[in-house]
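Model the whole thing, not chain by chain.
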Amino acid sequence: MAVWEPIDTIAAKVQSGELKAVDLVEKSLGLIAGNESFKAIVATTADRARERAKAIDAKIAAGENAGRLAGVPFIAKDNFLVFGADTTAASNILKGFAAPYQSTVIEKLEAEDAICVAKANLDAFAHGSSTENSDFFTTKNPHDETRVPGGSSGGSAASVALNLAPFALGSDTGGSIRLPASFTGTVGYKPTYGLVSRSGVVAMGSSLDSIGPLASSVEDAALIVDVTAGKDELDSTTIDQDDQGYVVSASSLAGKKIGVIKEYMGDGMQPGVRGCVEAAIEQIKQAGAEVQELSLPSLPLALAVYYIICPAEVSSNLSRYDGQRYGFSYADAKNLDESYTKTREIGFGKEAKRRIMMGTYVLSSGYYDAYYKKAQTVRTKIINDFAKAFESVDFLVGPTAPMTAFKIGENANDPLQMYLTDIMTVAVNMAGVPAISIPCGTAEGLPVGLQLIAPQRADRELLSVARAAEELLT
Amino acid sequence: MASEDTRRQYTVTIGIECHVQFKTKTKLFSAADNDAREAAPNTLVNHIDFGLPGALPVLNKEAVRLACRAAFALNSEPQKFSKFDRKHYFYPDLPMGYQITQFDEPIVLGGSIAIEVAGERKTIGITRAHMESDAGKSTHPAGGDYSLVDLNRAGTPLLEIVSEPDMHSAAEAKAYARELWLRMKYADVSEANLYYGNMRFDVNVSVSKTDQLGTRTETKNLNSFRSIERAVDYEVERQIQVLEDGGEIVQETRGWDDTGLKTFSQRTKEDAHDYRYMPDPDLPPIVLEQSYIDEIKASMPALPDDYRRILSEIGIDAKTTSDIIAVPDTAMTIKHVYEAAGGPHAKRVAFWLLQPQSDDGEAGTETEVKAPEEQLIKLSQMVEGNKLSSTAAKEVLAEVLKTGKDPEVVAAEKNLLQVSDEGEIAKIVAQVLADNAKAAEDVKNGEMKAIGFLVGQVMKLSQGKANPALATDLIKKQLGM
C-alpha cells in the first residue's frame, strides 16, 4: 500500500474522523526524521504544524466542515514565506529571517486546512539544477544517493519521492519544478505564468517565475493547482483561473493533436532517455493521438536568451539583500560602502554572485541594447514560435531533460554544463506557457521525465491529457 | 560681481524638474498611509515599502487618475500606453535597491504652460511627466557615527514634471514654478503644500555667450519660489564669474543653502550612477482606454487661465487677480457668484474675500471660505438694494463666514439693516433740523458742507440704520431746496 493515499481521499477521511490531522502531521514529521540522510529538508515547522492539526481536528470534532485539504501535510520549498520557520531561500544572507507575512499560496492552502510541516532545500535563491548551489548542503537523490535530485526545487522533489508528505511546493523559473520531478520520478507542474500568485515567494526572475506543485500523481497536482490558482490582488501579474477549475479526469488521447518538438529530439540526449521518451510517444500514438513532428526554430536560442533575461532580473531582485534591514549584515563595517560590499560578499554564494554580475553587465548602459533588449526580441520570437506551433497541434511533447540525474559534483565546477540541463525547460518559461513533467520509465534504474506543454491558459486541458498519459505510462 | 555689461553678454538657460506629491490616501505601490506629516518614524510602512522578500508592488489606481488630471493641467493628454521601470542604486533609504519610475515610456509626453513676467506672456514647454515612488528619509545626526532612516516617505507617489529649457531668467523660473503650483492645486492633483515638501524643484542652469548651450548645473530640492529665484540668480552669477575668470563649469549636482543663500557642490558627473534601468516585470504596463481618458477630461475643473479670463471680465486688476487665484477656494467662489449673479456682484464678493497673498506659496496663507455662494450673493444684493451699508456688510460677512448663518438673519440680529422707510426717516430728519437750526440755516444759505453734519446726526439718531442717500434727499426736501 502506498505511504499516502490520494490527497482528496486523505482529506475526506480527516473530515469523516477516520483519520486525525495530528496523526498525519506526526507521520510526516516521523518520515522526515527517518530520512534525514537525504537532506531534503532545511527545517520543520513542527510546532505550528501540530497546533494547526489540533485546531483542525477540534473543528471537525465540533461538527464543522473542514477545508478541501483537511489535515493534508505538505512541504514548501524554502523560498516560500511561511510562518513557523525561517525563510532562507537556502542562502546565508537570509539565514535567520523569520517571515512577518505569508505567501498567498500558503494562505490559500491553509484556508483549505492543509498543513505545512517543513521547508525543503533548494539551490540558493533557486539558482541551479541540482541543489548543489544551496548555501547549506546538497540534497541526495532518493533513487541513488550519489546523485543529485535536480533543482532548484530538489528538496521538494526528493521529499515527494521519499513520500515525506503527499505533496510539496516548488517554483519554476527555467525548469526548477520539472527538472527535479524528472530526476526523482515525480510529477512536477509549472502552470501558465501568472496563474498562481508569486506574492510571498522570494523572487528570482520575476517575468519567468511560476509557482506549482510536485506530487505523486497528476490528480494530486491538479487538486493543488485548483486550490492555489487565481487572481491575487497582491500580485499584479496574476490572471483569473478557469471557470471550471483544474480538478479533471483523464481525457481520451484519441484524436488529440500532439507535436513532437524536433529541436528537443536531436543529438545530446542520453540514449536511455531517448528510448523512454520515444517509447512513451509511441504509446500515446497507439492510444489514438495524431502525433506529428514539428519545429520551433527559435528554441536553440532559448537558453542563451534565458541567461541574459534571468540574471538581469536576478541582479535587480537581489538588490534588496543589503544587510540594512533584515537578514545577514556584516557587523564590523567601518562605513556604508563596506557594510554593503562585505554583507553581500559573505552573504551570497558563488552562483548568486555570478548571476548578479552577469545581470549587472547586461543591464549596464552601453550594453543594454546589445544584450537585454536583443534578448527580449528573441523572447518575442520564442513566444510566436509556440503560438504558431499551437495553431497546428493541441499539445507539445518531448523529454524534460536530455539526461537522467547526474552525479553529485559532476557538473559543480562547470556552470555551462550545469546550465545545459535546463535546455529543454527554459523556453516554456520564456513563453509563459504551462508544462508538466511526468515519469515515463527509467534508464539504468534512474527515472526519466516526459514533458507535455500546452498553450497559455490551457492548464485544465494539459492536466487532463497528462492524466491520460500517466495512466498509459504507469 | 560681474558687471551689468558682462552679464548682458551671456544667455541664461533654465530647465526645471518638479516633483509633485499626489494627494492619494495610500502610497504608489502599497496600502500604507500616504500622509507622513505627523507620523512617528517607520510607522507607515508595510511589507512592500520595507522591501521584504517576496513583496510585490501593486499600482495605486488613484495615482494614475491624478497623473491623467495633471496631464490635462499641463495642456497635454495622458499616454494610452506607459510602463514602469526599475532604477537601481544602493542607499539605506531605498529598501528594494531600486526606485520604481517611468523611464522611456512616461504617462505624459509633451505639454506646455503659459507664464507672465513683467506683463509679457510666454509659453514654457513640458518635455514629459512620469510617475515614480519616493525614497525614504535619511538623517545624519551631527557628530554621530550613525544615520537614521525613516521609511514613512518610501513609496510616496510622485509626478516628476520635466520642462524644456525654455526659461531665461530667475523671474521666469519663479513664474513657471508658481504657475505649475497653481495648476497642480486647481487640478486637485496635489495638496501642493510647499512647506511639507509636496512640490520640490530641481533647477538646471547654464550660461553661454554663444548659440551653444553652456555646461549646466542642477541645484536640487528647492521648496519655495523665492529659493528658486535666488538659486538661479546665484548660479548665473557664479557661472559667469567662473567663466570670466577663465575657468570651466563642471557638470554637477548642487544643493541650496537657504541660510547662506548660496548653492554648493554635492556630486560631480564622475560620481554619476549607472542606474541600469529595466522594465519592472512585477508591474504590467498601464494601458488606458480612450473612454477613461475622455471621462477624466470631462471632469477637469477650471484652471488658473480660466479664472484669469473671468476675473478680467469682472474688471479686476492683475495684481488682485493674482492674489485671488492663489487661493483656489476664493477663486472658485467668485466664479460661481459670477455665473449665478453676474459681474457686479462677483466683483463685490471678490473684494470681500480678497486676502493679500505672499507670493511664496507658504503654508498658512489660506483661509477657507465657508459661506455658500447663495449667501454671498444675497449679502451683495442687500448692499445693492440699500438694505445694508458697505461697512455693515463687512461686519455681516465676518459673521456669515464664521457661522454660515443667513446674512439677513445676521444683519437683523446685529441691528444693521438700513431704514429706507421715508416716513420714519422724515421724522428723524425733522427732529435733527429742529435741534440744529444753525446748521440747517447754513445749508439753506448754500453752505453744503453743513449737510454732511446733518446727515451724520440723522445716522446717529437712527443708530446707523438710515440710508444716508435717502437722509440727504429728505433734508433738502424739508429745507425746501
